[in-house]
Design a protein that fits this description.
Chain lengths: 396, 396
């Protein structure tokens, strides 16, 4: 017997089929109430004292421990705060310090741009002859040569949904002396992840996608417990200090993963995220994964049967696919807009990818079939050719 | 005629005299309602579409422009997001790039520790022979030698309230070829600041103190408009890219101050801050400053008359003092706890500083006299000697 879906725990507009939880999860019930409590009963009533009396000081670690439970990480090994871009920078900078004689950061061409951008900025900041080397996703394992200091990959490709083998690539990285960083943006809350088994040194992720933490929810970073004391924080902020309130003149990192915290934590957004994680009560990642694969398989077969002009842009093999399905179509932008007008919310990624995320917490098979029916109608009626669907907005 | 104070625009518990707005401002009325609107009417109803339909994409810049108005900065010259520590790092990294031949970051020993820590982390990341040189606050101007790449100072000392002369020190820095960074943590919303007149290259600040943005409210960074295109972002995240949604493989900075944005903006906290700034309608910084000086003068004279055991640790001359007053006392920690128990909220900074912030938005002369009376009573009765006031909590 399954606990899924848990639609009743979310506030999703009537009639909307939301296939964009891989971009921004929907509003969990209780989140607004939690925000009001944080603002009125904690901030408003206790003011500065709330850092102690409402235990704001412990909230980043509490939420980190909850996230750890989803990604096979030990309690205390996940720090929260900032944005995913910042966490990528922290992991990369620390990893390069661990392999000072090696000049290459290896990634793949399908990685999310900000990960590559942050690497470029770090290299520019260091000012030495580091190289960001990107290869096709399927070539990564063989590209881990002995000049590679760090392999930085996103497990699930944000466009295609293609999934790397974390265990295999991490082993290959270690065999060749490289440090491994996994970006779990499209994994955490979507797939079973076992960081302990995979043995990677670092992982980073965000919480506004599959964890439904809301727009701008804080990011997280994992450091393998046995290497924490080797991690030199590049972003050595006071809340990563071993004694933040001693106000010492010199930075002295905390003896735990807390050294990867930086500044004052975003308490309001953290508290919303904390409540958003309550939705997962009684659900295992294995159960989520099983349901996600079934939803994706249904969508692929329904769309392929109904929409011959669309080309599957995700792997057909569920084992190497994340929790999303993408189809390529030259006018994909307009099709996505037409779908949105019909209540089916997917998104578009340049140049021609229509993305659909499948989140068993609030989607069932009937939703998926209905989405495919509407997509068929949009394609057959050519309603996407309406000029109003051609105008590009800033975010799709 | 004055518009001050505006106590009715804040939710402050009955009987509390809040002298800690220099650490965390109180809850403005309307903030909780705004959070609920952002969560339920925007996130909950519009989901991913809200980036466009609720104009979340524009919110960081909208709030930045509002902050710009308080600090004498041109519209478009202030970017918001992240934490103050991150913004310090961005400014410092960019400043060092602008003076590649100079090895010294100059600051003062009174600077807030995280500013110094971030400089240490940056130096360690770059791995070259940079030096963080700190001198006593009064020695800074004469210490700007020709090996100084960047002068990084906080205008108002977080412990003593001592205030630097921004115009004078900036001019000295420029005469000696150094880049100037001002940390406005204790200035923005507290004192008139005129970045345009002062001509500093960079400024950074936080919004949870005098702007009352709430716990973990986002930070801001200013870059002088004429140098923006020279600023090389160390933290080159996708939202600082010239075309974030083009998903280009290479970082290409925005042609505006937006290049100092990094990752996905904290929309919930930004919207609360946006509402918090409404409180300032019809108030000028000059009016705030006049009232603040009057409140501080009253507090100093009342406390000195009533509490001979306390030593003023702030400048006596209002011209060189920010919007806070500090007194030194060996058992200051316990005294502050005893005051808090009596409804007078100040804070303590190691080793012996009792800090009291004066914020004319919600404090008047009667509050200040009453606070001094209660402090007198705590001192004369020695109620602070109660053992319960000796136990150190993590934040005071």
């Amino acid at each position: 017997m399954t606990n899924l879906p848990k639609k009743h725990l979310f506030d999703i507009p009537e009639g909307m089929i939301y296939l964009d939880g891989n971009s921004l999860g929907p509003l969990p019930k209780g989140a607004a109430e939690r925000a009001v409590k944080t603002l009125t009963q904690e901030w408003g009533t206790q003011l500065i004292k709330a850092w102690n009396t409402a235990d704001w000081m412990a909230l980043p670690q509490k939420v980190g421990d909850r996230i750890a439970g989803f990604i096979g990480a030990a309690p205390g090994s996940v720090a929260t705060g900032d944005t995913l871009s910042i966490k990528v920078y922290q992991a990369l900078a620390a990893a390069l310090k661990m392999r000072p004689e090696r000049p290459v950061i290896l990634s793949d061409t399908g990685n999310f741009p900000t990960d590559l951008y942050m690497a470029q900025g770090l290299i520019s900041t260091i000012g030495k002859d580091y190289e960001l080397r990107t290869v096709a996703p399927e070539e990564v394992a063989d590209a881990i040569t002995d000049d590679v200091a760090v392999v930085m990959l996103t497990e699930v490709d944000y466009r295609s949904g293609r999934r790397h083998d974390m265990v295999d690539i991490t082993a290959r990285a270690h065999q060749n002396g490289a440090v491994m960083i996994w970006d779990l943006a499209h994994s955490a809350g979507a797939l079973p992840v076992d960081l302990t088994a995979c043995n990677a040194e670092f992982a980073v992720g965000c919480t506004y996608k599959y964890f439904n933490g809301g727009p701008g929810a804080p990011a997280f970073i994992y450091a393998r417990p046995d290497i924490v004391l080797e991690v030199e924080p590049a972003l050595s902020g006071w809340l990563g200090h071993d004694a933040p309130f001693a106000m010492e003149p010199d930075y002295r990192p905390a003896m735990t993963t807390e050294r990867l915290r930086v500044g004052t934590p975003p308490i309001v957004q953290l508290s919303i995220l904390d409540t958003a994680l309550d939705v997962w009560e009684g659900v295992s990642m294995e159960e989520i994964r099983g349901a996600s694969v079934a939803l994706c398989e249904t969508f692929i077969s329904e769309v392929e049967a109904r929409c011959p002009d669309l080309t599957l842009a995700s792997p057909r093999d569920a084992d190497v696919r994340g929790s999303q399905v993408s189809f390529a179509f030259a006018d994909g932008y307009a099709v996505v807009q037409a779908l949105i007008d019909r209540g089916v919310i997917g998104d578009f990624r340049a140049p021609n990818i229509m993305r659909f995320g499948f989140t068993p917490l609030y989607l069932d098979q009937a939703d998926v079939v209905r989405a495919a029916e509407i997509l068929e109608d949009v394609m057959k009626s050519e309603s996407w050719k309406d000029p109003k669907y051609q105008v590009r907005s800033r975010v799709t």
